[in-house]
Amino acid sequence: MAGLRVYRELLQNRPLSRLLLGEFVSGIGDWLYIIAIFVVIYRQSGDAALVGAFGGIRLLPYVILSVPAGIVADRFDRRMVLLVSDLFRGALMVLMAIVISVGGPTLLIAALAICAAGGSSFFYPALGAYLPSLAKDERQLGPANSAWASLQNVSYILGPAIGGLVLALGSVQIAFIINALTFAFVAFILWSLPPSRPSDRAAAKATAVAEREEASTAEAAATAATTASMPVSARSQLQIRPLAGFTLVQLIAGFLGGGFQVITVILAIDILKAGEEANGYLNAAIGIGGLVGAITAGSLVLRRGLGMPLLIGAVVMGVGTIALGAANDLSIALIAIGVSAAGTLIIDVIGTTIFQRLVPDELRGRGYGVLMAFTTLTGVVGAFALPVLVTTVGPFESLAATGIAAIVLTTIGLILIGSAADRAATPYEATIARILGLPLFTGVPSARLEAAMQKVVEVPVKSGDVVVRQGEPADRFYIIENGTFSVSQAPAPGTPPEVLRALGPDDVFGELGLLNRTPRTATVTADTDGVVLALGADDFLALVGATGPLRGRLQGLYVGGGSGPR
Fold first, then answer.
1. Contact (Cβ atoms closer than 8 angstroms) between residue 513 and residue 528
2. CA angle, corner 428, sides to 423 and 429, nearest 5?
3. Longest dimension (CA), the chain
4. What would the DSSP string read from start to end of 518-544?
5. 215: confidence class by pLDDT, cuts 50, 70, 90
6. DSSP class of residue 268?
7. What is the pLDDT of residues 190-203, one digit of tens each?
8. Which of 122, 157, 467, 537 has the most CB atoms less than 10 A away?
9. Which residues pair with 476 in a beta bridge?
10. What are phi and psi of 351, to 5 degrees?
């Protein structure tokens, strides 16, 4: 229930939903373009070596430009960086279509494609840094990353399929024009989204800090004061260890991701003897497995602590990789590579969320730039090294060693990360945890209580407000979140009320009128400003049930102590 609530809120976040939709459409265009550009290079050159060289060279902009691109993302409006990058790449798509139509040289087409990759190197750090600013709070970051990864995997499945259809039914130039149109679509969406200028981000951060300080307890304030008194270098050093752990996890994930892009051909033709078409089947299994992994990560990422979900991803990836090495049949290999891809996407979603928690907003663009350069390099190493290992050492020995290394290195990384990336409890989560711990609710299944809390409404009250009035119908059950309240009762009509007791945080009232289906027998008045949590009659009765310990405890709350707020 809590997970569904988070994703409903994500869909209601219109700016974030529009951005995800735009990038999904753009992702389909990107994969369509990738299929088309390699076809063009191979058709015009007829040289497989040149195609391979182009595949490696087009990655160089990500290595060279990602860090400068991250600096740009931190110093300028990230939305505008995205907008300019999309318009730049869209214009290059049109230009490439024109060059191909007039029979232009292959080297010019390759040069334009590399320039487009340069535009992409500015796009991804800006997007990685901009997306968290659209999330309502930290709790929405993980689901947003999961939704992004899921949509990207769907585009990975649809894009090449559409590309093949376009190439079969029309000219290759159409693929470039379609991709240009997807860039225009994203640019239109970006124009409608809120800006993310450095001054705006600094102001938002100052406001958030002020709100947290205002809401903090004395103990938390003392802790914050101690941390704030540290020199800046000391606070920075606190993040070095967890970031080193995160880097270790990304090392093996990037290596395996890059290697899988190449070894599918070797597995299909040389190891499994299943023919060239099996390469397509294996890549489809990677896409489907990745989609399953991204969706699975959507539930795992809701946890405050992400260590266990990250380890789950590593184990799934490692076991799948080991099984792939042992596979001697195409059907088994399809399942194994899908499982490994699912684990890889779990690590990707969880790792991205950990990274967003570890790196402050003002450094996030540069952080993503460094991360992209690093993962590109590890991917290149994997693309070169893993095929060599598979063909020389053997598929089982090399893939089993890689799978075991994934589990071991992730475990070491988790030890280094520790609790540094754990998310602080939201006010709602803190309230749920506090209520679950109340003696009154002992023995109530946590799932039932959490389901009821989904329907709780926070009601702020002012000093002097009457929350429950004697003689009125009973319609709600109340839990006091903060503030003090007085319970009073008039012994007979027309007589002055008598104060029976005072109530404070975590006390409850309004239960007996609902249980006995009788009017209120007492009045509850706020003595101070405060907040109460209100639960409707039907939801309260569903929580209590016809029998059980909670009903008995509620009915016995005021036995021997006079009448209560019924």
1. no
2. 45
3. 101
4. ----SEEEESSSEEEEEEEHHHHHHHH
5. very low
6. I
7. 998 888 866 555 55
8. 122
9. 536
10. -65, -40
**For residues 554 and 506, is the Cβ–Cβ distance under 8 A?**
no
Compute the average pLDDT of residues 446-466: 82
Least confident stretch, 201-210, 221-230, 465-474, 486-495: 221-230
Helix, strand or coil, per DSSP, at residue 306: coil
User: Cα 293 to chain center, whole Å?
Assistant: 13
Residue 361 tokens read as 């907003």
CA 18 to each of CA 23, 29, 131: distance values in angstroms, whole numbers, following the listed order: 9, 17, 11
Instruction: Name which of 105, 134, 157, 121 is nearest 15 in CA terms.
Output: 134
Summarize pLDDT for 246-289 with one digit per residue, the tens.
888 888 888 888 888 778 878 888 888 887 677 778 878 888 88
Is the full-model pTM beyond 0.85? Answer: no
Instruction: Supply angle C-alpha 300, 306, 309, rounded to 5.
Output: 50
Note whether 34 and 162 are within 8 A (CB).
no
Indicate the pairing of strand 485-489 with strand 523-526: antiparallel
Interatomic CA distance for residues 76 and 196, integer angstroms: 8
Hey, which of 228-237, 279-288, 392-401 has the most confident mean pLDDT? Answer: 392-401
8 A C-beta contact, residue 519 and residue 475: no
| DSSP state letter for 238 | T
Residue whose pair of structure tokens reads 């397509």 in the numeric block:
280
Please give the single-letter amino acid code of residue 89: R
Half-sphere exposure of 168 (CA within 13 A, CB side): 6
The CA distance from 376 to 119, in Å, is 15
Q: Is 440 exposed, middle or buried (0-12, 13-18, 19+ CB in 10 A)?
A: middle
User: If DSSP codes are grouped into helix, strand and coil, which group holds residue 479?
Assistant: strand
